[in-house]
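Mods, move this if it's the wrong board.
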Amino acid sequence: MRRVSFATVAVLSVACGGRVLAYDAPDAGDDGSIPPEDGSASDVVSPPKDGGTDVGSCGAKTMCNSTCVDTTTDPQNCGACAKVCDVGDAGAPPDGGTLTPTCAAGTCGLQCGGILSPCSGNCVDTSADPLNCGSCGNACDAGSCSNAVCAMATTVKVGNVADLGAVSSHWPNYLLGTSIQVTKTSKLLSFGVLSKGSGPQAIMALYTDSAGSPGTLVTNTAAFTLTSSSQEVAASTQATLPVGTYWLVAEYDKTGAIGYTASAPSVTTKYVTHTFGSPLPASFPAPSSYAGQQFNYWIGVSQ
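Not the wrong board. Structure tokens:
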């Protein structure tokens, strides 16, 4: 804007936003407009009028602490004045990674840098993250990722696999079993039993522990036939088992012969009556118990 001088001027005061703004204007002007030196209409500048944009407004931007900012993109005023974007729950990045707060469309976000990559709204190190190993969404079955490669899962058996020596006579229509310890987070693959006779139908199930008794059903097998051998039957669901105590139980439709020992004084057996073939209880009923027996039951898990 060029400065314009006239020999005769008057002071025009205009109220705007609670302030009085003073403008030099020619005596001959009725609307307060200041013509340019060359008189061209395109350069005419009018003082602000009520309802218009004055020198204290920001147009499409927002006035925040006396500064015009774009609240759609400003990380210090994202969506509203003084709404500051930070790393939030992401916390401090690992060595070699950076987290930069961003603002887009008035919403805070994070820009991943260094060794970190964006995966489902999070910044992760795909070289070591077991849920995003090597690429987003590639979860490791064994729960371990190194140099962007999943560690191989190890299959182990938890319970009594070796023959305990004696042969039981398991009555039909009883859910009966003992506790086992899972010492490492695992994925349940199968149930195992050492049967000493052929013919009966069986079903096996795993329950959580509830104050020293079976609690909530985790998963089970379908009904299968005993074959006088060491048998493994697939679990209906490959459930993840956190570290803890579980109860491994079985039921038979007629008397079953199973490997067992009666020389286990520290082992407590829990049982309830239950009709074979009917749905397993989601929550184990209050059981009866006795001590001294252990059975050739186990589960196969990957770790």
